[in-house]
Amino acid sequence: MPLTDTFTKLLVRGLLAGLVAGLLAGAVAFVIGEPHIEAAIAIEEAASAPAEHAHGTAEPEEHAHDAGTDVQGHGESEAAASEGHSHGDDALVSRDGQRVGLFLATTLAGLALGAIFAVVAHYARRVTDVAGPVLALTLAGLGWLAIEAVPFFKYPANPPAVGDPDTINQRTWLWLAAVVLGLFAVAVATYVARLVAATGYLSVRVAAPVLAFLVIVGIGYVAMPGVNEVGPDFPATLLWEFRISSLAIQATLWLALGLGFAFLTERSGKQAERALAFR
What we know:
By secondary structure, this protein is mostly helical.
């Protein structure tokens, strides 16, 4: 993108691209993500129903034992229901309301991401020879790699029926640490790429930043604790289908953002060229 583009133009461009990207990500989430969430909720409710029945009919002595010590049975069902929130008639937000909120959430996320993308593009064009649509696509690819791919392969997404609500704060901080790790690894790889840019060997220009990125991510993965709260009874196929759909949703968001920003940048450049031609 040329330096003649003002920051305001880039910001509007980012918001427009982010709006479209958010809507597309919402559509993908609705089509391929919602069925897996519904299946996970069904498993959660099926697992909690027998425990609730036993909880309501037990003798006083047995009830005290269940509530106080049976953390493997009824306690896990309550934890799963707590993290997934209530999906029954007493839910604060109905499933239909959650589906509408899905598009609202992805749209707002797209707008916010588009604004941040515009700010990064504004400064990136001043420190690199890459410009125009290529810069937009490069930033989108690096952003997805740092903010989505690196955290995902260390702490992949889990469906509503998976996870202990008592560890949600710990898992949130670990995920944020993985995002910082991804950003740091991309920053170092970019710096290494600039250092070896003058070399005459293409293999070195490609291998050096890739190796730097992999080394930093590998060290970070080893240093950070693992999290595995998936129960042995949860269907493995459903778990991985959910995780793949989550990865597809985020890939859609970043790909649409990069392509949208690149298209608007190229369109603006062609309009400027036509304006100069008529002078």
